[in-house]
Amino acid sequence: MNLTPEQRTYARLAGICFLANYVLQMAGDSVTIILRGGETAAEVARYAASHYLLWRVCLLEVGLAWISTGVLAFALYVVLEPVDRRLAQLAACMRLGASFVGTASMMFRVAQGRLYLESAAGDVLAPEQLRLLVSVLKRGASEGVELAWLFQGAGAALFFWLFLRSRYLPRWLARLGLAGTAVLIPMSAAMFVFPQYIGPLKLVGLPGFVAEVATAVWLLRTPRMAPSQRGA
Fold first, then answer.
1. How far apart are CA 10 and CA 66, in angstroms?
2. What's the pTM?
3. Which of 2, 18, 70, 182 is in Cβ range 3.0-4.6 Å of 157 for a Cys bridge?
4. From the CA atom positions of the chain, what is the Rg in Å?
5. Which of helix, strand or coil describes residue 210?
6. Angle of helix 106-121 relative to helix 52-80, nearest 10 degrees?
7. Residues 211, 160: contact at Cβ < 8 Å?
8. Mind listing the pLDDT tens digit for each residue in 144-182?
9. How does pLDDT run across 66-104, given as a tens digit for each residue?
10. Sign of CA dihedral 115, 62, 105, 132
């Protein structure tokens, strides 16, 4: 079975959403997290207060990244529904769960930005109080993301399993995606239980990242489908 015009459109949309998710996430996190590494809570507060519009725009970019995950779930469902409708539905629900939980966790980061602004406006908080409140909000945001990754790993693994069965992707790429995204589940669970090891554990997600970027490029090419296998 070849791709229908509708499936070709949604395959391209899925490729765009894969890339948009990473680009928006990196753009937002680079200013609010990555470039702030090593700074004290007071230093981050001063930066956020003096660049508050930029800070809010960066948080919006991260929120849009989670929304793009929801659009991606629907696009992949349209492409892979002919292979196994039930599994495609379950995979879409899992990735939609990631979108919802990840977007909801943004409330902690928005509150954190507002705390920075208020603390920089006057001596309302002692340095230790600011550090403690920021730590609590960061942990809440981080655990929300870790729970979202549990959903995302499950949904992504199911979608790559359908890609493997359908041969829409090269088999090596589908296998890499299946293995690379499935490990997100134990990785995220370990990060939730042992937050002190978040940095090293993130490296476990690199194969999944590579697989999703390669899949995005492949879907943007919208190759002709090989014969698909319906049912289990």
1. 18
2. 0.87
3. 182
4. 20
5. helix
6. 180
7. yes
8. 999 999 999 999 999 999 999 988 899 999 999 999 999
9. 999 999 999 999 999 999 999 999 999 999 999 999 999
10. negative
